[in-house]
Design a protein that fits this description.
The protein is mostly helical. It has 22 helices and no strands. The longest helix has 41 residues, at 414-454.
Length: 500
Amino acid sequence: MSPPVLSDLGYVPPDGGWGWAVVFGASISIGFAFTFPKAFTVYFKEIQAFFNISYSQIAWTTSIMCATTYGGGPISSILVNRYGSRPVVMFGGLLCGVGMISAAFCTSILQLYICVGFITGFGLALNLQPSVIIIGKYFLKRRPLANGLAMAGSPVMLCTLAPLNQFLFDNFGWRGSFLILGAILLNCCVAGALFRPIGPGTAQVKTQVTEEGKDALKGKITEDGPMESKTEEEGEKDCFEKVNQYLDFSLFKHRGFLIYLIGNVLMFLGFFAPIVFLAPYAKHTGVDEYSAAFLLSILAIVDMVARPATGIIANSRWVRPRIQYFFSFAIAFNGACHLLCPLASSYTGLIVYSSFFGLAFGMVCAMLFETLMDLVGAARFTSAVGLVTIAECCTILLGPPIGGILIDTFGDYKYMFIKCGSVMVLAGTFLFIMNYYNYRMLAKEEKERKAKEEDPKSVRTENEGQKNWNKDSTQDGPELEPLKEKGEGLKKEMNGTNEV
């Protein structure tokens, strides 16, 4: 699929310059959003003993945090459309800091749910979506590479936060650690400050100038006429239409978006569970605690290298036009690794599995948002990512519990890996087949559109071509709708001035 046309944004992205500072800030925000719930588990044991609660009760803390992070996607998208990425990320960093500092003074698990789960989780939601969105505003040709580098912040942060949390816990306890973590999360405000607005400001100025010129003409036309039409149009706007200005629900009519949404919702049923149960599975096979934890370090290191490398490959001229196939392969490859995991009975086998799992996991994460932007374009990506994350929220929450139920029922981890692998292979196959169908349909529609454009250009008289212009323009594709609307608007205004 070809990259979005320049009119998608209304300006030419710089593809560099200050954009690399934006990528650095995005890697920090994305790293905290994806990594913090995982690194927080270091404090589970002491908090569980302090409040005298069960493991399932303390586990709800990270579940609520993840659910709020993904469930807050639509709200984050609306705020970005209204205020831009910079203030939203800075406010999200402030919420994260306030949430963790408040958690240091909690006296019950319910208060911890509110401070860590809801407040910090919502702050992370305000960091995740705007950081991904702003990259699409600064990059076009190098966008896959920029996304890969930004997503690499997650494994880098995991390698940093995991030992840091253990150090803080050993020296300051969980309450003191929460105070320090709150101060560290305030660095998201600094990362957000790097998100310098681009494009929309200039576009708004031009729009205002154009609107003022049109209003002047329309004022002359309607000087003696009734002014009720504008009031009636505003009165007809209901709540849904107002929300639709900031969150584009027409995406549910977009064929490529629906294919992506269904495939990703299915994929997330088996995406995170293997990470959660990798260390316990290693211990189940007789591996000691430190060696089991080292498997996660191997996964994170390979993941750290795989994400930018995948971005470079996806940015090549051979892969970029058909990046959806590459994404489908990465998902199926991920599933194949899980299906083969039960065969790894020794520690060496688990190291090999962790390495390939880290590679596959990094490939999927590097293209997770790039493929969505490739389908809907940068202009509609803000709404698309919000709608996708709220849909993925349910399967992200259900994946690990379903895996835990299988382990409890059969007393063996292999059924959990088989379930995750089967689901991801199915998701990858579905996306590959449906994207093939989508590419064929897009090529067919483009061919028909070009044929319709060439028909009026045949040898005709000037009058016949003028008469058929309106008819043919209504049959054109969505790419020419803005041009058609401008042409109709100018035509109406010229007619109006002539009538005056």
